[in-house]
Design brief:
Strand 4 (about 120-125) and strand 5 form a beta hairpin. The longest helix has 24 residues, at about 225-245. With about 280 residues, this protein is of the alpha/beta class. The chain has 11 helices and 8 strands. The strands form 3 sheets. It has a 3-stranded antiparallel sheet, with helices on one face. It has helices at about 10-15, 20-30, 30-40, 45-60, 75-85, 95-110, 165-175, 175-190, 225-245, 250-255, 270-284, and strands spanning about 5, 65, 90-95, 120-125, 135-145, 150-160, 200-205, 215-220.
């Protein structure tokens, strides 16, 4: 099954296929993967804020509405009218202050996405040729033509509580390079007619004033993609396939494979050591 189409979240999440989030959970441990797939993913204010910002900035998604005062008759009536108009699943309820924030974020990014050829919220579903597993990804913005420099770039919009110029560190911490590699792999599988250069772009915006934003990019041929991310994706898919082949209940089987209990030596990454040395030097 090879599919590329715009798709609402509820339909996308219902698809029985491996996405980049669950894949990264397996890279932590099979237990983490199993717990993620079988656990409840409920409401969180940060998730709702991010969903609202995506809707505002990309121009596609649920309605962003300030929460009415449900202690009053007028507030309850307003809520009922909005639910009837848009549907309960197509509304993101935020505080009035947060609605102002996401509107300011939209105004700051402006028409960056709308000026691009392509569509928002496009799902890509394919079969991994090495394992036969169904895989999926939903691009925030899927291009229809290459950029002026000839590179076709899949785009992802992210919000951050930090400054966007710190995104490189977050990219490593949260495995965004794996996300980029996974989506580019999906694009090659679902759009085999495209033979040109491919890239991935993160549009990163801070959630607090002044709501500034930056653009960060990966090239498909970058060693970060080919030598770090792609092998990890292959490893995770192969591991998931092994559990499925060896057990009638692979998720239950995975619960016996958590983190290593062998004592680990503590070491800090090079960038952290440099920061600490610079801070100590400033004391002298």
């Amino acid at each position: 099954m090879m599919t590329v189409k715009q798709m609402p979240d509820d339909e996308y999440f219902a698809l029985d296929a491996i996405d980049q989030t669950s894949l990264k959970k397996f890279l932590i441990s099979p237990l983490a993967y199993s717990a993620y797939l079988t656990g409840e993913h409920g409401y969180s204010s940060a998730l709702e804020f991010g969903k609202a910002a995506h809707s505002m900035v990309l121009g596609s998604g649920p309605q962003v509405v300030a929460k009415p005062n449900l202690r009053t008759k007028e507030g309850k009536a307003l809520r009922d009218r909005l639910v009837e108009q848009y549907g309960a699943d197509d509304i993101v309820w935020l505080s009035a202050d947060d609605v102002e924030k996401v509107q300011a974020m939209r105004d700051m990014v402006g028409d960056y996405f709308q000026k691009l050829d392509g569509q928002p919220e496009v799902a890509m579903i394919a079969v991994d040729p090495k394992t036969g597993l169904d895989i999926k990804g939903k691009a925030d913005w899927l291009p229809s033509t290459p950029d002026p420099d000839g590179v076709l770039r899949i785009r992802d919009y992210k919000t951050t509580a930090k400054s966007p110029d710190e995104f490189e560190r977050s990219c490593w911490t949260y495995g965004y390079h794996i996300q980029a590699a996974f989506y580019m792999r999906l694009y090659r599988l679902t759009m085999p007619e495209y033979k040109g250069p491919l890239g991935f772009e993160f549009v990163v915006q801070e959630k607090n004033s002044p709501f500034d934003w930056m653009v960060w990019r990966f090239d498909e041929r970058s060693p970060i993609i080919t030598e770090l991310a792609d092998p990890k994706i292959d490893k995770a898919l192969k591991g998931i396939k092994s559990f499925r082949d060896l057990s009638d209940d692979p998720l239950e089987k995975m619960r016996g494979y958590g983190l290593s209990k062998i004592p680990q030596e503590i070491s800090f990454p090079d960038w952290r050591l440099v920061e600490e040395e610079e801070e100590i030097d400033s004391w002298r």
